Amino acid sequence: MHYSGFDRRKKVLILVMAKTTFKYSNGEVTIIWQPELCIHSGNCVRGLPEVFKSGEKPWITPEGSGTEKIVVQVRKCPSGALSYVMDENEPEIK
Ligand code: SF4
């Protein structure tokens, strides 16, 4: 794929900005949210309001639903702002 100079700078900027991540775990799955990628479609809030709560802090509460439902909903995020990792695959932080 060819990027013009402007597109390349824009892509690099997006990748740098996308480094901000927030993680929310229910002990089985960790939801990862990258706010700079969020296009505020509201899909997550409408699809699984027990977990994604607009206007609340924290706005993601994974203990509100089961792991399967969370995974299905996260996969529907249109921008890639949401992703997940199963907790047994998380590298141990020492
Ligand atoms: S579904 Fe993804 S893009 Fe839409 S509001 Fe939720 S996190 Fe943001």
List keywords for this structure.
single chain, 94 residues, Alpha-Beta Plaits, three-stranded antiparallel β-sheet, binds iron/sulfur cluster
Walkthrough of the structure:
By secondary structure, this protein is of the alpha+beta class. It has a single domain (20-89), classed as 2-Layer Sandwich (Alpha-Beta Plaits), CATH 3.30.70. Helices cover 28% and strands 15% of the residues. The chain is built from three helices and three strands, in the order H-E-E-H-H-E. The protein has helices spanning 5-17, 43-47, 67-74; strands spanning 22-25, 29-33, 82-86. It has a three-stranded antiparallel beta sheet with strand order 1-2-3, covered by helices on one side. A hairpin with a 3-residue loop joins strand 1 and strand 2. It is elongated. The mean pLDDT is 88. The protein binds iron/sulfur cluster. Residues 38-44, 77-79, 81-82 line the site of iron/sulfur cluster.
The CATH topology assignment is Alpha-Beta Plaits
Just give the CATH class: Alpha Beta
Q: Write down the secondary-structure element order.
A: HEEHHE
Biggest β-sheet strands, sense, barrel: 3 strands, antiparallel
Bound compounds, each kind once, are: iron/sulfur cluster
Gyration radius, rounded: 15 Å
Oligomer: single chain
Number of strands: 3
Terminal residue distance? 40 Å
Strand percent estimate: 5-15%
Strand ordering within the main sheet: 1-2-3
Helix-strand makeup class = alpha+beta
Share of helix, binned = 25-40%
Characterize the overall form.
elongated
Number of helices: 3
The mean pLDDT is 88
Overall number of structural domains:
1
Spans with pLDDT under 50 lasting ≥5 residues? none
Name the CATH architecture.
Answer: 2-Layer Sandwich
